[in-house]
């Protein structure tokens, strides 16, 4: 009860997020669920990329799953897959560096457009190959040597990077690994891109029209990378607003999957105590981030 | 004569906002009140990239410069022609800030004694990570209120 005459102070979303306590332990990125139009066509494509047409695949009732090491990719069929082709959303999979030139050649021969771009995370400053799967999900081929895992990173878009960082690094307990767009050097680099001298991925740069002199200037697009175990989640600032799912919906696709050693009962009690909406099915908890992206937490 | 109300704010250029925020928060006890151009609406409006911080009743914006800034030599603690921002702190806080500077490996000059009959007791001089010159001082007359300023809401 407020004293007479006192005004209730509405906390901002950032103030609320700052008050949340992190989930104990650090979850690990272990999987991705993507929507595809045709699982058979998707399997053909990804089998070529992963170099595995047989042993790693599992057919489900309405989905197809590929596993390597502790990571998996689940493909679910949708009539109109939500792929955000024109956004910064993409998934980077490890591809054996010795196979990579052949994979790129085969993809091109099969009619796929393969782009050569670089990004800003220190591990991605060399040019990599990017291609769309048959449904429009953007795939990055991350060269590796003897890498037993599948996922290097997954990038998603959000409209507020401060809230995004608080959700992934504070509420979910990830560790901020790298931030881009906070430093003078990042802005100096953007000028090289604007002059066509730097093959940056399209979502890493943007033109802003400065409000006071209407000058069109090149800027880095803000990015924050958060580490979850061996995998990274890249948070990319959305350059335009997109339709979000209904606010009370916590469970959907596409989504990131994190696994945690924390028992489901404890994780559920923790999120409830932090006033964080979620749904639970057995040992799986489903949440959505401040940008409307879905996250699944697989508990121990 | 111009009828100014008060100093509204300063813009301080740094070459890394995150690093500078941490310095002003952890060493001087400032707090971030707002970050601009970290969301889609700000980007679409073409706003400048900056962090607004409050230190006591002083509002300042950490800005990224248009181009790389020349960094002063390590052993220079006062700016060209002595230019710097000076913050008054209590006698106790003065010593605590010096300890925090040491803990954060920030080199400083001082404490320097001021003349006994002047209003200032001691000062220390140092730089933020962007090479901006700063001073903290304690006042012998710290109980005297010179010009109280209230920060505007919002």
CATH architecture of chain B: Roll
Number of strands of chain A: 18
The overall average pLDDT of chain A, rounded, is: 92
- Major sheet size, sense and barrel closure of chain B: 4 strands, mixed
Largest sheet of chain A: 8 strands, mixed
CATH architecture of the largest domain in chain A: Roll
Shape call of chain B: globular
**Greatest chain-chain interface?**
A-B, 25 and 23 residues
What is the CATH topology of chain B?
A: 2,3-Dihydroxybiphenyl 1,2-Dioxygenase, domain 1
CATH superfamily name of the largest domain in chain A?
2,3-Dihydroxybiphenyl 1,2-Dioxygenase, domain 1
Number of helices of chain B: 3
The structural class of chain A is alpha+beta
Strand order of the largest sheet of chain B: 1-4-3-2
Q: How many domains in all of chain B? A: 1
Give me the secondary-structure category of chain B: alpha/beta
Unreliable stretches of chain A: none
Please outline the helices and strands.
The complex is a heterodimer of chains A (300) and B (154).
Chain A lengths: L12 H7 L8 E9 L2 H12 L6 E3 L3 E6 L2 E7 L12 E7 L3 H10 L5 E3 L10 E5 L5 E7 L6 E8 L2 H11 L3 E6 L3 H11 L10 E5 L6 E5 L2 E6 L2 E7 L17 E6 L3 H10 L5 E3 L2 E5 L5 E6 L1
Parallel strand pairs in A: 1-4, 5-8, 9-14, 15-18
Antiparallel strand pairs in A: 1-15, 2-3, 3-4, 5-9, 6-7, 7-8, 10-13, 11-12, 13-14, 16-17, 17-18
Helix pairs in contact in A: 1-4
Chain B lengths: L9 E4 L3 H10 L4 E6 L3 H6 L4 E6 L2 E6 L21 E5 L1 H13 L4 E6 L6 E8 L5 E7 L15
Parallel strand pairs in B: 1-4, 5-8
Antiparallel strand pairs in B: 2-3, 3-4, 6-7, 7-8
Identify the notable features of this structure and list them briefly.
heterodimer; A: 300 residues; alpha+beta; 2,3-Dihydroxybiphenyl 1,2-Dioxygenase, domain 1; 2 domains; 8-stranded mixed beta sheet; 35% strand; globular; B: 154 residues; alpha/beta; 4-stranded mixed beta sheet; 3 helices; 8 strands; 19% helix; 31% strand
């Amino acid at each position: 009860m407020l004293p007479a005459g006192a005004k209730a102070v509405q906390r901002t979303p950032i103030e609320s997020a700052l008050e949340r306590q992190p989930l104990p332990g650090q979850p690990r990125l272990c999987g991705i669920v993507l929507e595809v139009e045709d699982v058979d066509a998707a399997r053909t494509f990804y089998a070529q990329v992963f170099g595995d047409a047989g042993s790693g695949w599992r057919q489900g009732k309405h989905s197809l799953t590929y596993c390597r090491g502790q990571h998996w990719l689940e493909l679910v069929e949708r009539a109109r897959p939500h792929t955000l082709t024109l956004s910064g959303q993409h998934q980077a999979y490890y591809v054996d560096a010795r196979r990579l030139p052949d994979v790129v050649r085969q993809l091109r021969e099969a009619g796929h457009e393969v782009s050569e771009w670089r990004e800003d995370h220190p591990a991605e400053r060399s040019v990599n190959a990017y291609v769309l799967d048959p449904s429009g999900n953007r795939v990055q081929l991350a060269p590796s040597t003897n890498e037993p895992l599948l996922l290097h990173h997954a990038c998603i878009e959000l409209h507020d990077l401060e809230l995004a960082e608080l959700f992934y690094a504070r509420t979910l307990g990830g560790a901020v690994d790298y931030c881009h767009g906070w430093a003078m050097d990042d802005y100096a680099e953007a000028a090289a891109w604007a002059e066509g001298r730097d093959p940056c991925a399209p979502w890493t740069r943007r033109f802003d029209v400065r409000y006071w002199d209407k000058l069109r200037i090149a800027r880095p697009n803000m990015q924050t990378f958060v580490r979850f175990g061996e995998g990274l989640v890249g948070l990319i600032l959305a350059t335009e607003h997109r339709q979000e799912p209904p606010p009370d919906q916590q469970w959907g696709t596409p989504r990131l999957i994190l696994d945690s050693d924390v028992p489901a009962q404890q994780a559920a009690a923790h999120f409830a105590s932090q006033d964080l909406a979620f749904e639970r099915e057995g040992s799986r908890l489903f949440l959505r981030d401040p940008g409307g992206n879905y996250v699944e937490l697989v508990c121990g | 004569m111009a009828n100014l109300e008060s100093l509204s704010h300063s813009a301080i250029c740094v070459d890394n906002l995150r690093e500078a925020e941490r310095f002003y928060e952890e060493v001087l006890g400032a707090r971030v009140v707002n970050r601009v151009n970290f969301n889609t609406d700000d980007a679409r409006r073409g706003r400048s990239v900056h962090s607004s911080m409050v230190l006591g009743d002083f509002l300042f914006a950490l800005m990224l410069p248009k181009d790389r800034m020349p960094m002063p030599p390590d052993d220079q603690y006062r700016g060209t022609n002595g230019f710097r921002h000076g913050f008054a702190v209590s006698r106790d806080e003065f010593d605590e800030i010096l300890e925090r500077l040491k803990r954060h490996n920030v080199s400083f000059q001082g404490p320097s004694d001021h003349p006994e009959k002047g209003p200032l007791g001691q000062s220390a001089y140092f730089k933020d990570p962007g090479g901006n010159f700063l001073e903290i001082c304690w006042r012998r007359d710290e109980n005297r209120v010179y010009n109280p300023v209230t920060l505007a809401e919002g």
